Known about the structure:
- Helices cover 51% and strands 17% of the residues.
- The chain is of the alpha/beta class.
- Strands 4-3-2-1-5-6-7 form a seven-stranded mixed sheet.
Amino acid sequence: xxxxxxxxxVKDDAMTLALFDLDNTLLAGDSDHAWGDFLSRxxxxxxxxxxxxxxxxxxxxxxxxxxxxAYCEFVFAVLAATxxxxxxxxxxxxxxxxxxxxxxxxxxxxxxxxxxxxxRLVIITATNRFVTERIATRHGVSDLLATEPEQDEDGRFxxxxxxxxxxxxxxxxxxxxxxxxxGETLEGAWFYSDSRNDLPLLEVVTNPVxxxxxxxxxxxxxxRGWPRISLRG
Length: 233
C-alpha cells in the first residue's frame, strides 16, 4: 500500500469525495459478468445460450461499445422471472463463490486510507444494485450509485430499468443528481477506475486515478499525466 500512497498526492484540504468504480478496480474481476457465469454454471438459466450472450455483452463493454439498455434488459429478465427469496439465496452463494475471491487487500487499504483523510467514500458502478449492494457493504462503503432495476410496490423486479443507467455519461448524470441531493460538490474529488467507459467521469474530477487499466485508458492516462496504480497482488 505504501507504493500506492506514494503515487497519490493530497493537493488541498477541500477533497471530500473519494469515488470508486467497482469492477476490475476495487475488485479483481467483473461482478456483473461473474453473476451471469454463476447463473449459467449452476443451471439457473439456459447454460450455453446465457453464457454466450453474457460473454458477448462483456466483450462489448471492454471494447467501449456496450448497448447498456439491451444489457439491462438481458440481466433484469432473470430478476423479474425469479422470486425475491430465491434471488437472495442465489446471491449469497454467488458472493461466497465468486466475489470473495475478487476482494483485494490493497483495495481495502486504499479505502481505509481515504477514510483516514476524512473523505466520503462512494462506489459508483454500472453493475446493478441487486448485485452490488452487498459488495459495497463488504467493502465498508455505505454510499452506492448503481444501475437501478425497477421494482413494483411489492418489491418484485419488473424487468425494466429505473432511471438513467450508471454508465459512461450516465454515470456523470447520476453523480450530479446525487451531489445535488446530498449537498456535496466535486471540489477536490478523487475517482478511481480501470475502464475507458469511465472517461467522462475521470475528466470532471480533480484527482483522476487509473487503476489496472485497459490499454486505451492507460494510453490516455499517460498522455494526460494521470496517476496510474495497481491494486493487484
